[in-house]
Design goal:
Blueprint: H1 7-20, H2 38-46, H3 59-71, H4 80-85, E1 97-101, E2 106-107, E3 114-119, E4 122-126, E5 133-135, E6 145-148, E7 154-156, H5 159-194, E8 196-197, E9 200-201, H6 206-232, H7 235-259, H8 271-282, H9 287-300
Helix pairs in contact: 1-3, 3-5, 3-6, 5-6, 5-7, 5-8, 6-7, 7-8, 7-9
């Protein structure tokens, strides 16, 4: 397996990083939970980044890399589903997209033009009408959350299409968590590098260094498994990537907030923008239990 980006993919990554520069810092006066950027969404749409998975020179590997890079931003938009799920369905689906899983609230559901409805083993597509989705402004997750109230017409997907959706939802989940973990880790490293205790920066204490190193290893592992799943498109690889991402996020969230001390519990530090998003992603696709069952199904049953 070679995950090294080719020249075309490197050019796209460089252009994407340049686009993202303007969204790399949160506003000084922002002290909320969900920092959403319509401008980021619009620029990605206009530059056709949501279609890169369909370009032979780019493919899903470049799309997963882009999702991971953009997830590091304090700003968020509906990116992962559009980049990694929509291109693998032979259906014209208007974006933004959202997942409504077993009736639970969905990320970006209030603005979504396409809903992926998961009801047990069934997967379908719906296009909500006015008033059928209500916003949940009091949600602590750092995404705009919405709940489906109405009963839009759902077009069921066949078994093959449903499996495809689940596979790429898992890839998207892993790639997004990888970027969130990296951003949370970077934010914490910066904090312990400048915050002093006993006359020296916290980051110079060996106990913290060991834990930060372990979190860096976890973060790297999540990223590589996500890229492998995007590269192979294999259902087993996707399940492993999602399971490892959700499991690793549990450990990293705890460590990052503890190392950030009181600042990590405030809205003045951007850490919550990444860790609370991970909290939302950790419960998707059945959570760790659901993805562990999928690993057993795809990686061990056949053997």
């Amino acid at each position: 397996m070679d995950f090294a980006l080719n020249d075309d993919q490197l050019a796209v990554a460089g252009a994407l990083d340049k686009l993202a520069e303007r969204f790399a810092s949160s506003p000084v006066d922002f002290h909320g939970f969900a920092l959403v950027s319509d401008e980021l969404d619009r620029e990605l749409e206009e530059s056709q980044y949501f279609d890169i998975a369909t370009i032979p020179e780019m493919g899903p590997l470049s799309a997963a890399d882009s999702v991971e890079r953009l997830a590091r931003l304090p700003y968020t938009a509906e990116i992962a589903l559009s980049m990694l799920v929509r291109p693998h369905l032979d259906i014209e689906l208007p974006r933004p997209l959202s997942v409504i899983e077993n009736g639970r609230p969905g990320r970006f559901a209030t603005t979504a033009k396409t809903l992926i409805i998961i009801d047990g083993d069934k997967v379908g597509i719906a296009h909500p009408g006015e008033g059928e989705v209500v916003a949940l402004p009091d949600s602590l997750f750092a995404y705009p959350m919405g709940k489906l109230l109405g009963s839009p017409e759902v077009t069921p997907l066949n078994a093959e299409q449903a499996d495809t959706v689940r596979t790429w939802l898992r890839v998207a989940c892993a790639a997004e968590i990888a970027g969130l973990m990296q951003a949370a880790l970077d934010s914490t490293v910066e904090h312990v590098s400048v915050r002093k205790q006993f006359g020296r920066p916290l980051g110079t204490f060996q106990a913290l260094r060991h834990r930060l190193a372990e979190c860096a290893v976890l973060t790297g592992g999540v990223r590589w498994l996500a890229l492998k799943a995007a590269w192979s498109g294999d259902a087993g690889d996707a399940a492993l990537a999602a399971l490892h991402a959700q499991d690793s996020a549990t450990r990293l969230i705890y460590d990052m907030h503890q190392m950030s001390g009181a600042m990590g519990m405030t809205l003045e530090m951007d850490l919550h923008l990444w860790t609370y998003r991970m909290k939302a992603l950790m419960s998707e696709l059945g959570g760790r239990a659901g993805n562990a069952a999928a690993v057993g199904q795809y990686c061990f049953d056949a053997a």
